[in-house]
C-alpha cells in the first residue's frame, strides 16, 4: 500500500502539469456551478464520521457546510479515503479537500494548502501501567498507527528501532488496541476518549505529544484566486471564533495557539 | 457516543445493491471479454494467440488494486473522468476477462481432439464446429470453475472501496469508524457476503447435476 501510494503520487506529480488541460480559474467555476465539491473522509472520527441517522457529521463536515454557506453555493461531499485525499484533488474529482490533512512539506510539493483552519494533537497513547515518556522509550516495542497518517510517517522516520504496525483505519486500530494486539499507539488526542468510552478496562492515556500538526484546506496547484478566498475565509472564521467552536464541539479541546495565531497574521 | 442502530443496518443493507451491481457489471463485461480472449487463445492466427496470451499474462500478473487505481486516477490524468462505479466496473471487467479467458481456454481445449476431427469429417466450418460441437461440451466443463470464480469476483468487489466507492465493505468501514463496534458491523457485512455467495454455489451444484458433468 505504501509503494502503491508512492507510485500513484509519483505518477500524479509527474503528469499533473502536462496532462491537466488549461482551466479557467476554479473559484469562478465553483460559483458558476453553484456547487462546491469537497472531499472529506468519513472514517476519521471526530473529523469526519456519520451520526446515528447516517448523516455526515464531524468537525471537517461542519466546516465544509459553513464554507459552502459563506460562499453561497451548495455542498457536495465527495467520497474519499485517507490515501485518496490528494489524488482526488489532482485529478479534479474534488474542488478542495477538508479532511484532517496536515500541512507537511512533502504534501505541499503536490498540492497547495490554505492557512491552518484546525489542528491535530498527535500523541503516543497506551494503557496506564506502561511507561513511555519519549521516542527513545519506544525502542524495541510494538507501536500501532493508522496507515498513511502523519503519525505513520512521523514514527517511521523517528522511531527506527520500534516495530511499527499499520492498520487500515482508526476503528481497526482501536480494535487492535482493545484486543491487546498492541499496547502503544500513535493517534490524534481526540481519539483516546472515543476508544476509552468503548473499552474502559484498557484505561488508555496520552503518554507524550509527538507533534502538533496544523491542518490546511487542500487545493490543486495553480488556483491562486480560490486559495486567496480560502485564506481570507479561514482567517475571518478563526478571528470570529466559529472554527474554534466547531473544534471544541467535536474534539472537546480548544484549538492550539499556533492555529489561532494564523488568523491574525 | 454513537450507537450501532437501525439507521446503520439500513445503510449497510442498501450498500448491498452496489456490491451486486458491481458484480453483475464485472461478470457481464468479463464474460464477453473472456469469451473473445478464450477464442483468440485457441485461434489459428499466431498474432491473435500472442496478443491474447500477452494480455492475460499482464492482467493476471497485476494486482486488482492497481487496476482500480489506474482506472480511477490514471485515466483521469489522461482526461477521462470516470465515475467511481464506471471506473470500478471497467477495472473489474478487465480483470475478470483475463481470468475467464484462461479458464475457458482450458475448457475448450479439454474437449477431446476427436470431436474436432469428427466435425471436420462432417464438413462443418469453424463457426459451426464451435457453435454445435465444441462450445456446448466446453460449457459443461466450464460451469464449476466459472461459478467458483464468480464467488471470488463478488468478494473482490470489496476492493473498490479503496477508490471511495461505497459498496458493502466501504459502508461497513464508514459505520464502524463512527460507532466503533467492529464485531457487530463486520459480522453483519460478512453475513451479507455469505448471503450473496452461498446461493451461487448452490445454483452451481444444481446446474452441474443437470448438465451431468461428472457422468
The CATH homology group name of the largest domain in chain A: Periplasmic binding protein-like II
Q: Determine the CATH topology of chain B.
A: MetI-like fold
Instruction: Kindly state the number of beta strands of chain B.
Output: 0
User: So, CATH architecture of chain B?
Assistant: Orthogonal Bundle
Outline the biggest β-sheet of chain A.
5 strands, mixed
The structural domain count of chain A equals 2
Q: What is the radius of gyration of chain B?
A: 21 Å
Order of helices and strands of chain B: HHHHHHHH
Q: Count of DSSP E strands of chain A?
A: 12
Q: Which shape of chain B, going by the Cα principal axes?
A: flat
The averaged pLDDT of chain B comes out at 91
Mass-distribution shape of chain A: elongated
Q: Which class of chain B in CATH terms?
A: Mainly Alpha
Q: How much strand of chain B?
A: under 5%
Terminus-to-terminus distance of chain B = 60 Å
The gyration radius over C-alpha positions of chain A equals 19 Å
Oligomeric state as shown = heterodimer
Number of helices of chain B: 8
The unreliable regions of chain B are none
CATH class of the largest domain in chain A: Alpha Beta
Q: Level of helix content of chain A?
A: 40-55%
Amino acid at each position: 500500500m505504501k509503494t502503491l501510494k508512492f507510485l500513484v503520487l509519483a505518477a500524479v506529480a509527474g503528469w499533473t502539469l502536462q496532462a491537466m488541460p488549461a482551466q479557467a480559474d476554479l473559484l469562478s467555476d465553483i460559483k458558476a456551478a453553484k456547487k462546491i465539491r469537497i472531499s472529506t473522509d468519513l472514517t476519521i472520527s471526530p473529523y469526519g464520521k456519520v451520526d446515528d441517522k447516517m448523516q455526515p457529521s464531524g468537525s471537517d463536515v461542519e466546516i465544509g457546510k459553513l464554507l459552502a454557506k459563506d460562499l453561497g453555493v451548495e455542498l457536495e461531499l465527495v467520497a474519499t479515503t485517507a490515501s485518496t485525499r490528494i489524488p482526488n484533488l489532482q485529478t479534479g474529482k474534488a474542488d478542495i479537500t477538508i479532511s484532517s490533512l496536515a500541512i507537511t512539506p512533502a504534501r505541499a510539493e503536490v498540492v497547495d494548502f490554505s492557512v491552518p483552519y484546525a489542528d491535530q494533537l498527535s500523541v503516543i497513547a497506551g494503557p496506564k501501567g506502561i511507561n513511555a515518556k519519549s521516542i527513545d522509550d519506544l525502542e524495541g516495542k510494538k507501536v500501532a498507527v493508522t496507515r498513511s497518517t502523519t503519525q505513520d510517517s512521523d514514527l517511521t522516520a523517528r522511531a527506527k528501532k520500534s516495530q511499527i504496525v499499520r492498520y487500515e483505519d482508526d476503528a481497526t486500530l482501536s480494535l487492535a488496541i482493545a484486543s491487546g494486539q498492541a499496547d502503544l499507539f500513535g493517534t490524534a488526542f481526540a481519539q483516546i476518549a472515543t476508544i476509552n468510552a468503548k473499552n474502559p478496562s484498557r484505561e488508555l492515556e496520552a503518554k507524550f505529544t509527538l507533534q502538533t500538526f496544523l491542518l490546511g484546506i487542500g487545493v490543486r496547484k495553480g488556483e491562486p484566486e480560490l486559495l486567496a478566498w480560502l485564506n481570507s475565509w479561514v482567517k475571518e472564521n478563526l478571528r470570529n471564533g466559529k472554527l474554534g467552536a466547531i473544534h471544541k464541539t467535536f474534539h472537546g479541546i480548544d484549538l492550539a495557539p499556533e492555529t489561532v495565531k494564523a488568523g491574525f497574521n | 457516543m454513537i450507537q450501532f442502530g437501525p439507521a446503520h443496518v439500513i445503510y449497510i443493507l442498501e450498500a448491498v445493491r452496489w456490491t451486486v451491481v458491481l458484480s453483475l457489471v464485472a461478470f457481464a463485461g468479463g464474460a464477453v471479454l473472456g469469451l473473445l480472449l478464450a477464442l483468440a487463445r485457441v485461434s489459428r492466427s499466431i498474432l491473435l494467440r500472442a496478443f491474447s496470451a500477452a494480455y492475460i499474462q499482464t492482467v493476471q500478473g497485476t494486482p486488482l488494486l492497481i487496476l482500480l487505481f489506474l482506472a480511477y486516477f490514471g485515466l483521469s490524468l489522461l482526461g477521462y473522468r470516470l465515475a467511481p462505479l464506471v471506473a470500478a466496473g471497467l477495472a473489474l471487467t478487465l480483470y475478470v476477462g483475463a481470468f475467464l479467458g484462461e479458464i475457458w481456454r482450458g475448457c475448450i481445449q479439454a474437449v477431446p481432439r476427436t470431436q474436432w476431427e469428427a466435425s471436420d469429417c462432417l464438413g462443418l466450418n469453424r463457426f459451426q464446429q464451435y457453435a454445435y460441437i465444441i462450445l456446448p461440451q466446453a460449457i459443461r466443463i466450464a460451469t464449476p470453475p466459472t461459478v467458483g470464480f464468480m464467488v471470488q469476483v463478488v468478494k473482490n468487489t470489496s476492493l473498490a472501496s479503496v477508490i471511495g466507492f461505497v459498496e458493502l465493505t466501504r459502508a461497513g468501514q464508514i459505520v464502524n469508524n463512527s460507532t466503533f463496534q467492529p464485531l457487530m458491523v463486520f459480522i453483519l457485512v460478512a453475513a451479507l457476503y455469505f448471503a450473496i455467495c452461498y446461493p451461487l454455489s448452490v445454483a452451481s451444484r444444481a446446474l452441474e447435476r443437470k448438465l451431468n458433468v461428472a457422468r
